[in-house]
Design a protein that fits this description.
- This protein is an all-alpha fold and 225 residues long.
- Helix content is 85%, strand content 0%.
Amino acid sequence: DLLTITHCPTHTTMFTDAISGSISYSLFLAYHIFLYSLAYITPYHSVVGTSWAQRKQWARKLLITPGREILAVQTYRNIVLSSTLLASVAMGGFAFVISDLVDLNNCSEPDEDAYKSWILVGILAVSFMNFALVSRLVAYSGFLAGSAFTGRSEELKEDFGDDGLEKLIPAVGTMTNRATIHFSLGLRCLFVAVPTGLWHLGAWWLFGSMFGLIGLLVVLDFAYT
């Protein structure tokens, strides 16, 4: 049947998809392992590492200077608003792809490329969960920052000790850094969802767009250091 032959992928196409997918996602993961390892070992050699180090300094300067509490509130508010908006985008894409898969499942003819859609669903789900974790960590950071602001009082010194503020400042910086790491991972998952969507057009679309995405990320991650 000519129609069946047209819709069923050849072994060559399946092999090309497998090789293209393996190389593309392996390169994407390898780049991020390198990026975060470099940021941890030598912070000031990448934008990610520099922001980690400067955010800890931001927490210290903010919490030891009276009258700057509103700056923390504004910063955390902006992070939560951004993560909420992007979480909605990820969930919207997730629901759209799932509905498409349900429609395909009801068809008599199976879709041989359905696994690409499932990979896209997984990426969008990971993106959503990372953005959701941002709100959780920002809430923790806000409570810690609130304790630091009031920690100058004699009452809280009894709970935290004389060096209570010095204990809370690194905790606020660490929690804020974790929130921004999850924000970055969620955003990067949205980025990689684009090549994954283009994969439906062919293996070379995934391969080319993934290389283009990695090149763009290299510029964004290292251009300002």
